[in-house]
Amino acid sequence: MAIRPPILQSGDTIGIVTLGSPLDASTIDARIGTLGDMGFNVVVGKYAYAYGGIVAATAAQRAEDLMSMFVNPNVSMILPTRGGTGVKDILPLLDYPLINSHPKIVTGYSDITILLNILFQFANLITFQSLLLIDFNPNTPAYNFDQFYAATSTLVSPRVIQNPPSMPLNGLVKGTVRGQIVGGNLTSFVGTLGTPFEVNTVGKIIVIEETHEPTNAIYRYLTQLIMAGKFRDCVGIVMGQCTNCTTSYATSYNDLISGIIVPLGKPLLTNFSTAHGLYKAAIPIGAMAELDTYANKLTILEPTVTG
Predict the structure, then answer these.
(1) pLDDT of 249-287, one tens digit each?
(2) Which residues form the LD-carboxypeptidase C-terminal domain (predicted)?
């Protein structure tokens, strides 16, 4: 069983870090103001405002910021400003035994999902594909905050992750399986194949989503994961949205799912609200779940934080 981080409560302190691409200071400050209005205290990493081009700061500096939040006894949750590019280069620099002994809530999506999965694999810590600092603004749908708090601020179990009413889920391959959840951003996963930090899907339910990619690129990425055995090893598949993805060769994202993923024969749920979409489900990486594609349900079987 994976380690559950302590529950998030009003008045807790959130540590802000930039682990991939930089974010402008005015946006960071505005979102920190929102956190304050919501009743949280904030600690800002030394390099959170850094701008080093494609990445905010060196890998060593970004890793230092992250580790400083894990060892800070006042910090309850670690919240990256954004994803972007470059998160994976901090992975060799992290102290996983120390993280294991100082569990904290870590949340995010996009390139951050590589970190989330590796914290589960190397430190046995449940993490959350959920909100980034940029999402703490007045335009974020209530659904996203409801999902975030259901995962990080309650001990409710079991918990069905439900899409908004306007987004029906679709079970394309029927079945019922149980396993720990892994998953996140497709491009980011492919970028770790052949490294010590590729995602382990053995016996797992895998969740996949993508953004701003043409479907010919999605075809490449999905077939690469298939050839790497990632879908062979998993027990079930949840396909999230491909947000703002363009159609290539008259082949849509849904066409790819039907032509490439359905024939794999694994229980398959599609149209899941994820990450880069307007509506963002909170998916606990490392938690035990049941995927039931007869009922079109993904149910988290355990509390994902501890009281």
Answers:
(1) 999 999 999 999 999 999 999 999 999 999 999 999 999
(2) 178-291
**Percentage of the residues of the chain whose pLDDT score is greater than 70:** 100
- Summarised one tens digit per residue, pLDDT across range 120-131 is 999 999 999 999
Q: Please state which CATH number belongs to domain 13-152.
A: 3.40.50.10740
Question: Which CATH topology does 159-300 take?
Answer: Glucose Oxidase; domain 1 (3.50.30)
H, E, C per residue of the chain: CCECCECCCCCCEEEEECCCCCCCHHHHHHHHHHHHHCCCEEEECCCCCCCCCCCCCCHHHHHHHHHHHHHCCCEEEEEECCCCCCHHHHHHHCCHHHHHHCCCEEEECCCHHHHHHHHHHHHCECEEECCCHHHCCCCCCHHHHHHHHHHHCCCCCCEECCCCCCCCCEEEECCEEEEEEEEEEHHHHHCCCCCCCCCCCCCCEEEEEEECCCHHHHHHHHHHHHHCCHHHHCCEEEEEEEECCCCECCECHHHHHHHHHHHHCCCEEEEECCCCCCCCCCEEECCEEEEECCCCEEEECCCCCEC
Locate the domains of the chain by residue range: 13-152, 159-300
